[in-house]
Amino acid sequence: MTARPTPSLVELYDQSLVARRDQAAVEYDRADGGTGSLTFGELDERSNRLAQLICSRGLKQGDRLAFYLVNRIEIVDLWIACVKLGVIVVPINVLYKEREIRHIVNDAEPVAVVTTAAQKGEFPADVKCWDIDELTASAIGMPNKRPRTELRAESPAALVYTSGTTGASKGAVLTHGNFAANARAVAESWKITSDDRYLAALPLFHVHGLGNGIQTWLAVGCHMKLVPRFEYATAAALFEAYKPTLFFGVPTMYVRLLDVPDDRARGIGQTARLFVSGSAPLPAHVHDAFRAKYGQMILERYGMTETLMNAGNPYDGERRPGTVGLPFPNVSIRILAEDGREVGVDETGEVFVRGPNVCDGYWRRPDATAAAFVDGWFRTGDIGKCAADGYITLEGRRSDLIISGGFNIYPREIEELLLEQPGVREATVVGAADKLRGEVPVAYVVADSSLDVAAVLAHLRTQLASFKIPRGIVRVDSLPRTALGKVQKHLLPPPQ
Ligand code: MCA
Ligand code: AMP
Questions:
Q1: What is the pTM assigned to this prediction?
Q2: pLDDT in tens, 84-135
Q3: Are residues 231 and 175 in the same domain?
Q4: Is 382 a pocket residue for ligand 2 (Cβ < 6 Å)?
Q5: Ligand 2 centre from 108 Cα, in Å?
Q6: Which residues span the domain enclosing 172?
Q7: Which residues of 155-189 are buried (b: 16+ CB within 10 A; e: fewer)?
């Protein structure tokens, strides 16, 4: 399998859209409260019609089209239609507010952002929005004809915004080849076949849900149940009703699933085949508690927006809690010391990655792209070590990135907003440990006595996605700094 050349995504999807056209492909929640279902052939046809519509609106290969939507089947139609056209998809986190959206829209310059009529209000007035319901209704009248596009493994498929090891958010250019290579490696590593039933609860605007979930489903032609989002109050009932064999989640979801009563958890564990965790560290005690309750060892893996999947615990071998396992098929990993020397066994250094999964670089940012690669190896900014038997353990990051519920938070973005507030003289934001979300942001400020904390938080709520809002604003007399003026975040008092 590994020797096969990497195809474009259209070739990969045809193993399902064409070869399995009469098979049930997906079940989803309809707007009227009912359940919808489609075969692979119907998905092929819907995406052909939508592609014709997008084309008739003037988009051509290489143009960008963004979406800002909670999970729904039309994102799948849109994705496949854009893939067939060579149009580059720009997913936007649906929790983002106008300021965060504006940055992505200004940078990616999409022809339009596909959203709902209700959510249009989140957008700057000058951004062209297309209503997804109107788009879907108009597509019905278009011909069921595949667009003719010359696609190769190098053709860009998506621009996914992430901050890498530095501050401002940049678009990682992910190609057809990146997604296809990753889908094959995921399917091979986790033995995913057309017999599987995949429960898709991860948001489709991030590569965990979009890259691993959607691509692997379309590559192998298994069945998928797509839900708007992971709701822990109804999660157990959802598992019992659908009986998935396969579930991909972030650690917060697994912490939530520990609340399910033992007898129900045991039943869910018996019908499932594989639970995968990633996007943030899975605490070893959650791994152990999940095993005791569900009778299933969670498979933890390590990925990144820019590189899709890098490493994972083995399907058949030992799934070692606290580690991210071994490099994925065709992916090479090395760990380097500050001076560029390869470290020895169990020695800590920065993780570098190379392989067909690694993106081409950042959209219109040759400087950031050059800084991200060293001799052809992508620098992840993650700090880790490798045991004698090859298992990799992540120990931290070079940047002060905070990951909360699997969503990334860059302290600098919040710090800059805090410094604009009247009365704030200095500000820093750190990640405080949180049992459920892994980490949550907490701000420390040096401020005048006039500071109105409630007003500051209310202002931040208008500017930032909910997961970025500090859980507390701690007033301090001064921030601990090095002789060079850099804040020593580890010396701050713990939040109360
Ligand atoms: C949360 N909210 C959402 C979603 N998640 N809204 C729409 N879609 C979502 N997926 C909103 C809720 O409506 C609520 O809004 C607020 O966020 C908090 O929700 P709550 O249920 O209380 O939160 P939770 O119990 O902490 O659960 C959140 C979650 C969510 C379901 C675990 O954090 C999540 O979906 N995380 C996945 C992130 C992800 O896919 N990361 C992958 C990045 P309000 O506040 O307005 O009431 S890619 C990556 O990292 C690399 C490649 C890798 O390795 O995979
Ligand atoms: P993102 O840029 O949003 O894709 O986030 C990627 C980052 O998430 C990686 O660089 C890691 O720091 C972190 N990450 C992903 N998977 C894991 C994991 N299993 N354990 C620890 N950190 C992880």
A1: 0.95
A2: 999 999 999 999 999 899 999 999 999 999 999 999 887 888 899 999 999 9
A3: yes
A4: yes
A5: 24
A6: 9-386
A7: bbbbbbbbbbbeeebbbbbbbbbbbbbbbbbbbeb
